[in-house]
Amino acid sequence: MAWLYLVEDLDEALRVGDVVEVRGAEAKHMAVARMRVGERVQLGDGRGFIVDGELALTERERALVTVVAARRVAQAAPRVTVVQALAKGGRDDLAVQVATELGAAAFVPWQAKRSVSRWDQKAEKGRERWASIAREASKQSLSAWVPDVAPLHSTGEVASLAGHAPMLVLDPSGDTSLRQALAEQVPAGASGLTLVVGPEGGIDESEFEAFEAAGARRVHLGAGVLRTSSAAPAAIAAILALSGTWDSRSRASAES
C-alpha cells in the first residue's frame, strides 16, 4: 500500500516520467516515516487528482517523486454533507475524523441550542481545527478528496441548506428509518444530501421545527441511542452501503 501525501498545487498536466518536488510538512512526513528511494508513494491535491509515483530523493525539507501514473478519481455519490453540532470533550473532533475516513464530503459546524461547547470568538480557529482533522483523516483513508469545512452556522443557516439538497435529521425518537427516508426522499443517482447531527443533549424541538419547515425529515438509526461522536459515522456507513457506493473502490488506491 502506497502512502498518500497532499500537494495542493499538483499540476494536472503531469505525465509519466515527470518529477514532482515536495516541500514543507509533507516532505518532513516522508523523512519521519523513513521512506526510502524507490518506494511507491501517492500524491494528491485533495480535489480528486492523484499521482502514483516513486520516491527519487528524500531530505528533511524536500523530496522528489517521479511520476509513474496520474489520474482523476470521481467523488463518491451521494455527496454527504454532515452538519455536526458542537460538542464537549472533543467528541465533535472525533466525529469529523471518523466521518471523513468513512466518506463524508463536507462538514458544517453548528452552534445548536443545547451545545455545551461554544466557539464564540474562536469560530475561525475551530473551523481550521476541523479542516486540519479532516485533512489528516483523508490521508489516513487514502481518499482523493479532502472534505470542505464551512464556517460556523446558526440554526437558521442550517435550515436554509435544505433548499439545496435533501436533509435528514438524526432523531432517536423519529418514526422513519434511515433506509426508508433514503428510498422516499433521496432519488436514485442523487448527487448529494445533508445529514444533521445534534449535540450531547439532543436537538431542541424548536430546531426540529425549523428544519422540518424547511423540508427536512427526522430519521432514526434503530433502537439504540448513539453518542454525537458516533452518530454521523454510523449514518454515513449506512448511507454509502445502501446506495452501493462502497461496491466501488473509488479511493486514491485500489490496493488494500
Mean pLDDT: 92
How many discrete structural domains? 2
Q: First CA to last CA: what distance? A: 6 Å
In the sheet with the most strands, the strands line up as: 8-7-6-10-9-11
Number of strands: 11
Query: How many separate helices?
Result: 7
Q: CATH topology of the largest domain, what is it called?
A: Alpha/beta knot
CATH superfamily grouping of the largest domain: SPOUT methyltransferase, trefoil knot domain
Sheet bearing the most strands, described? 6 strands, parallel
Strand content range: 15-25%
At CATH level 2, the architecture of the largest domain is 3-Layer(aba) Sandwich
In short:
The protein is an alpha/beta fold and 256 residues long.
Question: How would the blueprint of this fold be written?
Answer:
Layout lengths: L2 E4 L12 E5 L1 H8 L7 E5 L4 E10 L3 E11 L6 E7 L5 H12 L3 E5 L12 H18 L7 E2 L5 H6 L6 E4 L7 H8 L6 E6 L7 H9 L3 E3 L8 H15 L14
Parallel strand pairs: 1-3, 6-7, 6-10, 7-8, 9-10, 9-11
Antiparallel strand pairs: 2-5, 3-4, 4-5
